[in-house]
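Reference record
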Amino acid sequence: MSPPSVNKKDTLSDYWLSFVNGDKEAFADFYNQGYNILYSYGMGLGMDSQQVRDIIQDIFIRLYTNSDLINDLYTIKPFLLRSVRNAFLNIKKTENRHTDFEQINFELRYSIITDDIEDTEKQEHLKLRIKNILSVLTPRQKEIIYLRFIHQMDYEEISQIMSLSGQAARNLLHRAITKARENDNNKDLLILIILFIHIH
């Protein structure tokens, strides 16, 4: 693969647009940038590592062979995440388990970054706080926080991924924030989480 050009592309949309316009090498960049996003999300949904890898591989093969699957540059990321979610649900159905969107047991898989905090006691206190904040949230509340604050998605994008109406997405996030604040009593708790956790 050729080295990046001077005008470095840094979004999925840029790489995808280059690919559909004939730059086949751009697909490798599109794949590389999208892979980690989808892997993290798939693991959060509860799949094992090989299942996630197989699903991601299948999604990108389908896109490479049929670029018409994406018809809007602004919905690429939601399309990819929704594809992972739907594939997960299909796996559950084939395993004869009754699974719907309400039953996805989403977990925020993370490690806590505390290198800037030298005091060990403060580090442990921060870890406990974040653990307690997340422990009171339902799987769907964790998922919407993940999509809204980690991936900075708007409500329309979240609605596409989680099969919710825009208002339902707003209500779900509001309940999540309210519930977390009641547990921690800190208005900046979500900023705290975003600054000090590394999603993997």
